[in-house]
Write a structure and sequence with these properties.
By secondary structure, this protein is of the alpha+beta class. It folds into 4 domains: about 1-90, 3-Layer(aba) Sandwich (Rossmann fold), CATH 3.40.50; about 105-240, Alpha-Beta Complex (Hect, E3 ligase catalytic domain fold); about 260-330 and about 425-500, no CATH class; about 335-405. Helices cover about 50% and strands about 15% of the residues. It has helices at about 1-5, 20, 25-40, 55-90, 120-135, 135-145, 150-160, 175-185, 230-240, 285-290, 300-320, 325-330, 335-370, 375-420, 430-435, 455-465, 470-480, 490-495; strands at about 10-15, 40-45, 50, 105, 115, 190-195, 200, 205-210, 215-220, 260, 270-275, 280-285, 300, 435-445, 445-450, 500. The strands form 6 sheets. A 4-stranded mixed sheet has the order 10-14-15-16. α3 runs antiparallel to α4 and α6 (about 135-145) crosses α8 (about 175-185). The longest helix has about 50 residues, at about 375-420.
Amino acid sequence: MMEDIRAGKVNCVIVKDLSRLGRDYIEAGRLIQKTFPAFHVRFIAVTDNFDSQTADFNTKSLILPVKNFINDSYCRDISIKVKSHQKTKREQGKFIGAFAVYGYRKSKEDKNKLCIDSYAAEVVRKIFAWKQEGMSTLAIAQRLNGLGILSPMEYKKSLGERFSTGFRTNITAKWSAVAVKRILTNEIYTGVMVQGKHEKVNYKVNKTIVKPREEWVRVEGTHEAVISPEDFAIVQKLLQVDTRAKAGAECAHLFSGLLFCGDCKEPMIRRVNRYKDGSKVYFICPTRNRGQGCTRHSILEETLKTVVFRVLQVYVSVFLDTKSLMEYIREMQVDFEEVSRFDKEMERLQKEQENYMDLMAGMYGDLKTGLLTEEDFRSFGAIYKKQYEETKKAIGKQEEMVKQLFRNGIASGVRLERFRETMELTSLDRDTLLSFISRIEVFEGKKVYVEFQGKEEFYKYLEGSDCINGKNAKKRSRAVYRSSRAYLECRDLCQTIRGLSWTEK
């Protein structure tokens, strides 16, 4: 319409009312009072009884701006109400997106609840598994395209959904490294609803900004998980380091993302020395390789495999050497005695909170009867309100600590199942490494430092915990551990807990 007005094709604009022209107070006023007169265009708003050709000065200068301002305010109020409603739904863990994330679909019974899409969820599991095997995001995308698996956009279109995205670059959307990484970093696959990552600048500007991570809305346990929290955490660590495969290879080497120089902490690089009769594979410090200091820290791949494999055997044997220790581990998964103590503390805090409520309620009666002056009423009211809010925060922290206890117990149970599956540790593979080891560091003299997953739980298993009542439990745990065959070999690990130093010998 504006193009036709500038071209001189239009001499009159008619609308039902002023809000149909626009709800932006400034823009609507500019059009009516500047743009239209400049191009000799007559403007008529039927239900508002406004005609620019016959309107007097008061109508144009007073009534028109007021009506435009009211229309603008209505738009702002609607925006505030919509945002408030969306925030409430997010905090309740309800999904409010237009389309479900790849791997899920909206429930037919409740559109705000996510259900697993079996086909897409299996693709997501493969993506996480391939990443743990050492594949890069680009290699994963290429494999998916090679297998003919539809990209998230094409899959949604195949289901009849009118899905569009700004990430599309070709006629048929393909998998890309960016799309794969977007899946690998999405916490929603662990059963946690994460929303509110973006927001519009305001209701007048059609532009979104990225919100800080601490302002995202996270609600746990809102839907069924596709990926376990342990596997998700492992992948996040791998994404922080370079796990690219060498030229011509699809997967990175066995220790990719886990092996670091003990001094400069840089990821070590793999080198192959070829001879007439064969070749030797070893790892060296990248800082030294660039000539920027540090030392070589060279270690043969086979030597490293032997050391790490032996350390893992010792680590696993500590847990699985006797049935008594296995029973003790099961008992320690969730400490109900500690949960009980938290419950008692929360009960005390809740009574204290109720007491402050009663005091504040009683003050109103004292104010009416004249026992309290208005100044004292405000003064004491502020004190009681502050104490009430502090007690409320304390209760929230206690509840979070109880939740953390159960989360730790569940995580310990998952690790225990993996220990059971690995009772006969006969070979070293990447899945075993990622399940038990978080970091490997190599020092000069071929000394190797291994850091295990779940060091805190390991410490509790070996030495006992303050959460367990009674001295007999601690004595029993120590006795069972010391009687195990692995005790002498693992005594350094028991002392440091953090890891195990092992020489080539």
